[in-house]
């Protein structure tokens, strides 16, 4: 390749490359490479002395042309980069705004609010009580004196010898009755409970319950069934039915487990394990001793009570198979319900 041809090749390579330059720093690299004192153009010019005079003249003209073309390309590119840098910093009011991350309700709270909405719709009042309870309220006044074998039903976290983290919302029954007596009452007691529990797919050491309590004249187990049917139909679907199975709790007599029909109607789904029934709550008629501990006369009034797990309700409603998802703080899980 003759020297003028070499210079023209440098020029066209440089002009092609400059189109790809995207920053002032890259442009400076480009300038040093082609126009710098030790750059490609200077390298070609340094060979002028070694060629014939005809070629030298042609090469000199080519070099002048190349230099002018590259300098012009350099200033054009620099102007272009400055304009776009300005645009980057400018406020463009036509751009869509940046949406802030919006939080949502936790599934437990969402479920709790739904339960509260349904029961307040039936005339129940929300009554919140202590999360840290005396042993007496958590157990004794609920017909579970010290050393009662049924205390084993609740693995308890003790704060001191006679203070516990409540293992259930049932102690709120005593507090509500002591506040309301001798008036009839209809309350739900939502709250956080704790158990010294081996955690697995259906047990957490911290969870929520909602307790229900109605005390007054003429309240029967049929009242509980009617209330629960109305709850189940609003919470799970208008076709749901309720059944009672005999059970045991020290603070109710008789005691029942409350089941509702599963969505699959016994077709054999995983949520009900093929039984067709979902166990949603414990309940029963408030034991006369507990009625008396609340300050009422069990010969005059009677009451029903129930207690259910909030997470369990959510699990049955949404087909969630592991309670540990609730408090693992994995947003991929939580966002589905927010
Ligand atoms: N407190 C019971 C528990 O945590 C649940 C329960 C059962 C509450 C029967 C009640 C009831 O009010 O009547 O296992």
Key features of this structure:
BirA Bifunctional Protein, domain 2, 2 domains, alpha+beta, 11 helices, binds 3,4-dihydroxyphenylalanine, 3-stranded antiparallel β-sheet, 338 residues, 10 strands, rod-shaped, 7-stranded mixed β-sheet
Give an overview in words:
This protein folds into two domains: 3-87; 107-334, Bira Bifunctional Protein, Domain 2 (BirA Bifunctional Protein, domain 2, 2-Layer Sandwich). The chain has helices at 3-18, 24-35, 40-45, 53-89, 107-121, 135-138, 171-180, 221-235, 288-293, 310-318, 331-334; strands spanning 125-126, 132-134, 158-160, 163-165, 185-194, 206-216, 242-249, 252-261, 277-286, 302-309. A seven-stranded mixed β-sheet has the order 1-5-6-10-9-8-7, sandwiched between helices. It has a three-stranded antiparallel β-sheet with strand order 2-4-3. The protein is rod-shaped, with a radius of gyration of 40 Å. The chain contains eleven helices and ten strands. The two termini are 72 Å apart. The model has no long low-confidence stretch (mean pLDDT 93). The chain has 338 residues and is of the alpha+beta class. Helix 1 runs parallel beside helix 4 (53-89), helix 2 (24-35) runs antiparallel to helix 4 and helix 5 (107-121) packs across helix 10 (310-318). It binds 3,4-dihydroxyphenylalanine (DAH). 3,4-dihydroxyphenylalanine binds at residues 168, 170, 211, 249, 252, 282-284, 305-307. The site of 3,4-dihydroxyphenylalanine has 11 residues, from strand 9 and strand 10.
């Amino acid at each position: 390749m003759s020297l003028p041809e070499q210079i023209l090749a440098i020029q066209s390579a440089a002009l092609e490359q400059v189109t790809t330059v995207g920053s002032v720093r890259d442009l400076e690299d480009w300038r040093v490479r082609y126009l710098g004192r030790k750059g490609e153009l200077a390298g070609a010019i340094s060979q002028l002395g070694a060629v014939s005079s005809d070629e030298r003249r042609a090469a000199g003209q080519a070099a002048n042309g190349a230099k002018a073309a590259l300098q012009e390309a350099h200033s054009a590119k620099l102007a272009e980069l400055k304009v776009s840098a300005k645009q980057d910093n400018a406020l463009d009011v036509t751009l869509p705004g940046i949406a802030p991350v919006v939080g949502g309700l936790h599934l437990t709270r969402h479920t709790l609010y739904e339960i509260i909405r349904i029961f307040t719709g039936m005339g129940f009042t929300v009554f919140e009580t202590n999360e840290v309870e005396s042993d007496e309220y958590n157990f004794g006044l609920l017909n579970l004196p010290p050393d009662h074998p049924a205390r084993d039903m609740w693995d308890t976290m003790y704060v001191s010898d006679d203070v516990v983290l409540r293992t259930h919302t049932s102690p709120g029954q005593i507090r509500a009755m002591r506040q309301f007596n001798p008036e009839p009452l209809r309350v739900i007691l939502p709250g956080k409970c704790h158990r010294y529990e081996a955690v697995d797919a259906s047990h957490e050491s911290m969870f929520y319950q909602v307790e229900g309590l109605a005390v007054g004249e003429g309240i029967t187990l049929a009242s509980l069934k009617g209330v629960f049917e109305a709850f189940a139909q609003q919470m799970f679907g208008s076709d749901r039915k309720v059944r009672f199975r005999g059970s045991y709790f020290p603070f109710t007599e008789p005691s029942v487990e409350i089941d509702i029909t599963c969505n699959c109607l016994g077709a054999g789904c995983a949520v009900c394990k093929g039984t067709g029934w979902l166990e949603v709550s414990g309940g029963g008629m408030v034991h006369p001793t507990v009625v008396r501990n609340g300050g009422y006369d069990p010969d005059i009034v009677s009451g029903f009570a129930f207690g259910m797990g909030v997470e369990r309700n959510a699990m049955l409603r949404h087909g969630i198979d592991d309670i540990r998802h609730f408090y693992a703080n994995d947003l991929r899980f939580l966002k589905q319900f927010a």
